Amino acid sequence: MNQMNKLIKDILTLIVVSTVLGISAQAVLPNGIGLRTEITVIGDDSTGVAVPAVSINPNGEGEAASNISLNNAYSAFESNAALFIDARSPEDFGTGHITRAINLPVHAFMDSLPYLEKLDPGRHIITYCDGEDCNASIDLAADLKMMGFANVNFFFGGWQEWRDAGYPIESSP
Predict the structure, then answer these.
(1) In the structure, what pLDDT confidence band is assigned to residue 2 with cuts at 50, 70 and 90?
(2) Distance between CA atoms of 137 and 157, rounded to whole angstroms?
């Protein structure tokens, strides 16, 4: 019985400590801890894909990075109003990518700093990767926001949705 009392006391202590840590983190972190995730459905009833309605604003300043639709991404492409950055590996980029996109694999972000430091921090940037099964574009958008870029979107539909829509693509040797 004494061992059972000790186990109950340890469990209650763990619950109290976890609660205190959670409340402390909520109070200290600039944006707190998300307690609720909004879900957005992209597509019609037959092809609808539920994705989190994510917005990324790590510094808590300015507008957050958020998902951009295929139509809006294509409009930005047509008017040459945005720089498209492919977050996939160089091998995937070489097999096909959005025309005029540059390759900046999210895992090699630090290697790209000299290039990124030369860009206008107000330039509209759209990141993308393979599509709905890939989060590299979201991670890259967060890195760019933390670096100070003000106008960043991630295209969650990515390479697959762009290619399937028949929009301009190219490959590298």
Answers:
(1) confident
(2) 10
As a three-state string, the secondary structure of 79-126 is CCCCEEEECCCHHHHHHCEECCCEECCHHHHHHHHHHHCCCCCCCCEE
Instruction: Please give the structure tokens belonging to residue 66.
Output: 């958020």
Q: The domain 55-170: what is its CATH number?
A: 3.40.250.10
- Identify whether the C-beta of residue 112 lies closer than 8 Å to the C-beta of residue 104: yes
Mean pLDDT of 153-166: 94
- Domain limits of the chain? 55-170
158 pLDDT band (50/70/90 cuts)? very high
Long-range contact pairs involving 85-88 (C-beta distance under 8 Å, separation at least 24):
85/125, 85/126, 85/127, 85/128, 85/140, 86/127, 86/128, 86/129, 86/159, 87/127, 87/128, 87/129, 87/134, 87/136, 87/137, 87/139, 87/140, 88/129, 88/130, 88/134, 88/136, 88/159
CA–CA dist 65, 44 (Å, integer): 24
pLDDT in tens, 112-121: 889 999 999 9
pTM for this entry:
0.67
